[in-house]
Specification:
By secondary structure, the protein is α/β, with parallel strands linked by helices. The chain folds into 2 domains: 4-170, P-loop containing nucleotide triphosphate hydrolases (Rossmann fold), CATH 3.40.50; 213-328, Zinc Finger, Delta Prime, domain 3. The chain has helices spanning 4-16, 33-45, 72-79, 97-107, 129-140, 160-163, 176-187, 191-200, 205-212, 214-229, 235-247, 252-271, 282-291, 294-312, 317-328, and strands at 22-26, 52-54, 62-66, 85-88, 117-121, 146-152, 167-170. The strands form 2 sheets. Strands 4-5-6-1-7 form a 5-stranded parallel beta sheet, sandwiched between helices. The longest helix is centred in the C-terminal third of the chain and has 20 residues, at 252-271. The two termini are 44 Å apart. Bound molecules: zinc ion. Zinc ion is lined by residues 46-48, 67-68, 71, 73-74.
């Protein structure tokens, strides 16, 4: 399915003028749901004689939504400074009822200047039932000139009463080809790195962008080299590797993902070297693949998955990291 389909649907709704007052955009993270909501808000409020313009990233291709992208209103919306475009996102893991109450008070008044105010609630699944029920009243009796956009991965993550009051639009993962082309054309990423990031992104443009980020790219190279080197290192150096992972707690989730793709690639390399994801690091993948058996790579993949689970359950991260490092070094 093509990523542009939901955008064309939105353009069609706008052209017909039968605009619902609440939308639910579902799909994985980083495929442009929020960006599409902003584009729709621009299209409703743009000052210029409008023509089709690409959305502010991250949505590859033209949106089909009519806005100029350059007038005062379009620029303020893109910059996130327009007073009539209100965005709410989880703080920590929750959207609390206090935020929703504040919002309801705010939207009871007419917009400052917008023809259509937009309220974008990202990750709306994070509303607890209390917050969702408070919002429900606004969805039932919409305030004047206000459009709600809720985003979530799945509709089933939300109360059915909320879902039933929204026009549900599904966003599909973006194809690897399209992401690779987007990274090359709009972010100057070279062909191999773009292709590799696209393959590893699972269809998420935001994730692909993060993967092509220079510091992250450097970490990826370092991790791949470490994976091949760890088995020949003395234990204190293996624990030093664990310490380094441990020190950068914020990135550990991303690192685990990178370690996993390297290990998978080392397995794939044995049978179909042309199908690996890290195509910009074939030397490191080949080295790892040649020195490790399938069984050993399988154990290591299991260890990474176990570590991800331990992180989610907030188990002692130091212990878990050391255990993982020893497993990656074939010492367990
Ligand atoms: Zn404009």
């Amino acid at each position: 399915m093509d990523q542009e389909k939901p955008l064309r649907t939105l353009a069609g709704i706008l052209a017909r003028g039968d605009i619902p007052h609440a939308f639910l955009f579902t799909g994985i993270d980083g495929i442009g749901k929020r960006s599409a909501a902003m584009g729709f808000a621009m299209a409703c409020n743009c000052l210029a004689a409008v023509q089709e313009k690409p959305l502010p990233v991250p949505v590859p291709g033209d949106s089909g939504l009519p806005f100029c992208g350059t007038c005062r209103i379009c620029r303020a919306i893109a910059a996130g400074t327009h007073p009539d475009v209100i965005t709410i996102a989880p703080e920590g893991n929750a959207i609390k009822i206090g935020r929703i109450r504040e919002l309801i008070e705010k939207v009871a008044f007419r917009p400052h200047e917008a023809k259509m105010r937009a309220v974008i609630i990202s990750d709306a699944w994070a509303m607890n039932p209390e917050a969702a029920n408070a919002l429900l009243k606004s969805l039932e009796e919409p305030p004047p000139q206000t459009l709600f956009f809720l985003t979530a991965e799945h509709a089933s993550d939300l109360l059915p009463t909320v879902v039933s009051r929204c026009r549900h639009i599904r966003f599909a993962p973006v194809s690897a080809d399209r992401i690779a082309a987007f990274l090359q054309q709009h972010h100057g990423v070279d062909e191999k790195a773009a292709r590799s990031a696209a393959l590893m992104s699972g269809g998420s443009v935001a994730r692909a962008l993060a993967l092509t980020d220079v510091p992250l790219g450097a970490w990826r190279q370092w991790l791949a080299a470490e994976l091949a080197a760890l088995p020949s290192r003395p234990v204190p150096l293996v624990l030093a590797f664990a310490e380094k992972l441990q020190k950068n707690k914020d990135q550990i989730g991303q690192w685990l993902g990178m370690i996993q793709t390297c290990l998978y690639d080392a397995v794939v390399w044995k049978y179909q070297p042309g199908r690996i994801m890290n195509i910009d690091m074939t030397d490191a993948v080949a080295a790892l693949s040649e020195q490790e058996s399938i069984a050993s790579l399988g154990r290591k993949i299991d260890a990474v998955v176990a570590m991800e689970k331990a992180l989610n359950r907030n188990l002692n991260p130091r212990l878990a990291t050391e255990k993982l490092a020893l497993e990656l070094a074939n010492r367990l």
